[in-house]
Design a protein that fits this description.
mainly alpha
Length: 78
């Protein structure tokens, strides 16, 4: 619903497809990677995989909010 409020037309289609693809990767890849990590390092693998996802999300948010990207948006390039 939030995607539909922000986008329309072909951009909505692309955003919905990207969301579905990331969801699928998370469902299949996330559990496989977490299971592999737990088999390698033991019970610490689960919190380590959660921490890894948090670090990746924080990095993505910082990159999105970088001054260069914000300036590009203001200039009409983003």
């Amino acid at each position: 619903m939030l995607i539909g409020e922000q986008l329309g037309g072909s951009r909505l289609l692309v955003a919905t497809a990207a969301f579905g693809a990331m969801w699928g990767l998370g469902v299949f890849g996330g559990s496989a990677i977490t299971g592999w990590l737990m088999a390698r390092v033991g019970a610490v693998g689960l919190p380590a995989s959660i921490a890894l996802v948090c670090v990746l999300l924080a990095a993505a948010l910082l990159l999105e909010a970088s001054p260069v990207r914000l300036a590009a948006r203001r200039a009409g390039f983003g």
